[in-house]
Amino acid sequence: MGRWEPEARERLMVAALDLFGEQGYENTGVAQIAERAGLTKSTFFRHFRDKREVLFGGQDELVSLIAAGIEGTPASAGALKAVERALVAIGVTFTDSRRANGPRRLAVIAANAELRERDALKMAGFSGVIKDGLLLRGVPEIEAAVVAELGVLALRIAYGRWLEAGGDFADVARPALEEVAAAAAALEGAE
Amino acid sequence: MGRWEPEARERLMVAALDLFGEQGYENTGVAQIAERAGLTKSTFFRHFRDKREVLFGGQDELVSLIAAGIEGTPASAGALKAVERALVAIGVTFTDSRRANGPRRLAVIAANAELRERDALKMAGFSGVIKDGLLLRGVPEIEAAVVAELGVLALRIAYGRWLEAGGDFADVARPALEEVAAAAAALEGAE
DNA sequence: ACGGTTGATGAGACCAAGTCCCATCACTCT
DNA sequence: AGAGTGATGGGACTTGGTCTCATCAACCGT
After folding, report:
1. HSE (side-chain half, CA atoms, 13 Å) at A173
2. Is residue B1 pLDDT above 50, yes or no?
3. How many structural domains are present in chain A?
């Protein structure tokens, strides 16, 4: 059965999310996920490097979009503007179907330390691309690191709001970044 | 042999770092680490929840110190000042022996995705305690998140400099936080 | 000195994640 | 039809991680 059925990857992701939600991430075996998708363990690991990645697919695409968004920003613009363009750029991947699964996905990740690890690394990856992109534009080291962290924070905030409210991701990303930047600029000195 | 020898945990950490450096993290088995320490696999997992944690011990202590550092800051002080106190507070754990192993440890972590994941989660954990501590002080949500991220960034920067230069951790942590805060305050708007 | 208790360890069975290798089947092209 | 291609099935194998039970040294009270 199921052999050569299209979208094996999609089927695996759906099956995994369903099972994780029903019985928890740790109580769900890879073989079980594959079975529900009409496939086998071998095929699962052909599509995903490990069990976690079935929940974190598409990161490479986001990284590319972020890098492109920064690189495509006029050299005259500031670092924050470049990050804003990056956040807007990734909006194209935030589709309705992703939004539908978002809350379940977040709940599963929040309930498991192994998945939180992967999520943290994913965010660190975003931060890294942003920082590297800014360094290429000549932004000083510390400023690049600061803006990268603030950008990722804005991304997380915007993602949460987008899951709740829907609509165009850019419409939540821009205000989120502005709020974060405003909070940063308003800080009093530490001495 | 080696039964009841003191500091089994220490011996395991040293053996692990040695073996990871010699032959890589992935080519080193838990049984091998335990053997070099004169112990067994069972005992290894009694001291560390998993293979990675042998490189990340002491996080709980840091988290406690951070929380205490923030809580012990006068309510009149700003968020940045509380974070500064937290960074100074963790300085007591940065001993000479830790500094001696630091570079090797960083190299091993950098070379392995699994370990980078754990490291990223560790940093996210720090960020979380800081943020929670600031929220308890009445700092607004966004500002707390911003300052927490900046604090962790300063922590990473300070740790790198401390590994190079040595001395009192507080003497590198304070300037690092000031630089980060200054870079954040100097940002131009995103519009 | 003796026996019981405690606490860390040893030993081994066991499960699941992840790797490898090879056979198989559907589809395509010539 | 026959060969090639690419995704899949299947099973052996390694290793991280869990669990249970036995063991042994130190301590403690009588």
Report:
1. 22
2. no
3. 2
**CA–CA distance, A62 with A47 (Å, rounded to integer):** 18
Q: Quick check: A146 and B180 CB within 8 A?
A: yes
Is the Cβ of B82 closer than 8 Å to some Cβ of chain A? no
The predicted-structure confidence for A112-153, as pLDDT tens digits, reads as follows 999 999 999 999 999 999 999 999 999 999 999 999 999 999
> Measuring CA to CA, how many Å separate A29 from each of A155, B59, B117?
32, 30, 22
Indicate the residue of B78, B142, B191 with minimum beta-carbon distance to A183.
Answer: B142
Q: How confident is the model at residue A187 (pLDDT cuts 50, 70, 90)?
A: confident
Identify the sign of the CA torsion B158, A179, B76, B125: negative
Do B72 and B85 have their domain in common? yes
Interatomic CA distance for residues A67 and A71, integer angstroms: 6
Full DSSP string of B116-133 = HHHHHHHHHHHHHHHHHH
State the nearest Cα–Cα gap between A82 and chain B, in angstroms.
9
- CATH classification at residue A16: 1.10.10.60
Q: Tell me which chain B residues have a C-beta less than 8 angstroms from the C-beta of A113.
A: 121
- In whole angstroms, D15 C1' to B129 CA is 34
- A190, B174: Cβ pair inside 8 Å? yes
Structural contact between residues A48 and A11, judged by C-beta atoms closer than 8 angstroms: no
Distance from CA of A6 to the nearest CA of B (A): 31
Q: Which residue has the tokens 């000549």?
A: A138
| Residue A129's CATH number | 1.10.357.10
In chain A, which among 26-65 make CB contacts under 8 A with chain B?
A: none
